[in-house]
Amino acid sequence: MIKKNDQLIVTISELTYAGLGFVKVNEFPVFVYNALPTEKVTIQILKVLKKYAFARVINFFNYSTERNKEINYTDIQTGLAPLSHLKYESQLKFKDHQIFETLHKFNIDSPIEPIIGSPKKIRYRNKAQIPVRSLKDKLEVGFFRAHSHHLVITNDFLLQEEIIDRNILKIRDILRNFHSIPYDEKSHKGTIRNIMFRYGKFTHELMLVLVVNTKKFSNFNKIAEEIKKRCPEITSFILNFNEQNTNVILGKENETIFGSSYLEDQILGNTFKISPLSFYQVNPLQTENLYNIAANYGELEPNDVILDAYSGIGTIGITLANRVKQVIGVESVPEAVKDARHNAKINHHDNIQYDLGKAEIIIDKWLAEGIKVNKIFVDPPRKGLDSNFIKKSVKMKPKKIIYISCNPATLGRDLVLYQTLGYRIKKIQPVDMFPQTPHIESVTVLEPTIK
Asked: Is the CB of residue 56 less than 8 Å from the CB of residue 33?
């Protein structure tokens, strides 16, 4: 029986979807950090559960030819960059294989195009959410170790824009100087929970959001003055109040301390207002490639009426608006709808409307009113599309459905339902939005089986 701290010599047989090495020891599954197939290694067991265990490598007998040796083990240990030990070309092959295998489990055998790599492999993220905790009575920043809430200290976050990294460390030092108290999850006490940054790649605006556990903030005015003085790159500073005993990072209430309550950035020449709680793609250069692919697959025509479902702040619909007759967006988050309407206005588009509500409910209203759309674009969260939305969307009889997915598993589930309802898969194009991680984005084109 495997026990914690056991040391074993094994040869890694597979790489899991999460980027962990895999091996069976006497038929007992073991997942190994920083290990690749074909590598013979000595492992130390870190944690034993009922059906599997986790381990780390303490010695290599040989290295895989696909290994990137210029890595920081912390990036793998924390889940910050779990594929960083794999050369980038091999990461792309791994993701091609993952999406193929995942969709194959749903009996989807449609052709899948080779994944499109990211222009930037590191320093691409325009957003950071960094936990703040006390270690050895000192305020520290870092990332949680995988499968735990133990903070691993780091000064280099690898995937984030450099402007974000250097300002995280400045904020950390300012908070230390004023003896700010980090949040403690067990006692639900302390003030500083998280440091969040958002960066406008094309506007160079930098938003700081300090997530705090209380509205009674010691030395706050002095801290704000010091941030303004020592961090001139920060264009806006917002307090976010999260007093709930929860793992959710952001609360619902914000207070702007200086600068704007939002930042602006651009996608394909369009300007977007981005609030602290808004969804916005984190890899700006690759986002432009993603949206261009989606638009090209939509084969847009001047008389098209587009449904932009799960529209968020309007990024997809607004980038399409110049090429079609009308865009109708629907979103269930009130703040996002407000931002989307603002974004349509500042980009001078008068052929866009954004409705608040659940798409599957609003479609009924549109059908009753005789509103017709001939192409649908969807970009749902990881949980995928609501099955009722899929059924209702088919009733609109669109010529094309363009499905942008960030989760191959829910994509596969949803494509099966679309197929049973009379749509066929024409094309699937994976896009690497998240280098050094296992996450996979893709664009799928669906068309009616019978035209």
From this structure: yes
